């Protein structure tokens, strides 16, 4: 079939689809697709396809996306940005069909590269290096890994992710397309969710948020926010929640009438070490998500740790170097029994949240260092008050030295 015949067929396909449409907005988009295709304006054509696929969710159906991809895009996909091709494919097929489609597309990409660089042997080391560095192939491999995980093929997905991590993702800073980084962290999130590894899910979820620019679907945002909050609660090494709390994603559950508003309050009160409010919302959480009831002991320990960290933060100190707290103070503020208070402090030491020492004779905890964390406005205000008090003490000391040492200064 000649190029002219293909162009004629594609134009006929677009015209046929357009005639089946009722919405004037979609009809206008298809006229533009026909125009840009006939003029071979591939960049503008890609922009219109983006608009069709991602900016008109109320008009475009899944069946229409499938028809556009299979009858239109697939006819000239070598002309378009391959990463965009993958994105359009992911929107055009059912999950159980996508994996096969992605594998076929990967084979097409490899064949195109082989022809483009004139390699007869696909196992040539130079060609394999080109394949390893090609962004479209990295991206399609990441999507294959993610859909392996969706279909519970964990071993296959892990193998792909390990190979890619070794080749391209050992450093946080790389020169890859941000969409590729986002796809990598999203695939890692899928893996750690299946493995119930809350610590790694939380870490990679935040990295995904920092990389993605296309998190526009509200249901997707709510789902990710819910999963991140659960990971923040249940991660046994997650004790810094500032990046999550300051991110806009938390706003999707902040309104009181929303389904997961109780989770918003749990994370906020855990971050501030507010024992009473946390326990109040934890009771609600057990009703809304009964599986959290199985983690009650851990959650009680976690809020006590956060309460101790908050006590250390708000505790005034006469020394610029350390703070000393009595066991009684800690018991009262954290709701911990006297016999368990040392275990609480030792747990904080083991998690490297604080440094210092315990005096069992005097029953005191002296803290010389507290893990830095992002503060909310109330915590910043407390820090401001501490700095103000310190400034006043310095002024008072200066005046005392001046008044007491007047004769000394005169003799100098």
TrEMBL record:
GO biological process: proteasome assembly; proteasome-mediated ubiquitin-dependent protein catabolic process
Organism: Lodderomyces elongisporus (strain ATCC 11503 / CBS 2605 / JCM 1781 / NBRC 1676 / NRRL YB-4239)
GO cellular component: cytosol; nucleus; proteasome regulatory particle, lid subcomplex; proteasome storage granule
Boundaries of every PCI domain copy: 198-372
GO molecular function: structural molecule activity
Coiled-coil stretches: 147-174
Family listed: Belongs to the proteasome subunit S11 family.
Keywords of the record: Coiled coil, Proteasome
Keyword hit for Metal-binding: no
Keyword Coiled coil: yes
UniProt-listed Pfam families: PCI, PSD13_N
Listed name of the protein: PCI domain-containing protein
